[in-house]
Protein: YlzJ-like protein
Organism: Paenibacillus konkukensis
Amino acid sequence: MIHYTVMPLDVVMEGIDKLEANHMEIVMNGITMQVQPMNANQAAIVRIISCNPQDYMHPEYAPGRIIEFHPTI
């Protein structure tokens, strides 16, 4: 990623080491997505990871939506 700014790098990156990203990737109905678990069976969609443009057209998989899933080991 390239980030152009007039701000010093230490100001831009301040606090980056304190971020907690408890995201996980799952595949649901053939669509790979990054989700943030809320509890054992629910998660909020963070983003879709797909090369197929049609996958982004499903409103039920929009970022911010809550989905139910059953994690497998």
Q: What stands out?
A: Residues 20-68 form one domain. Strands lie at 24-28, 31-37, 42-49, 66-68. The chain has a mean pLDDT of 88.
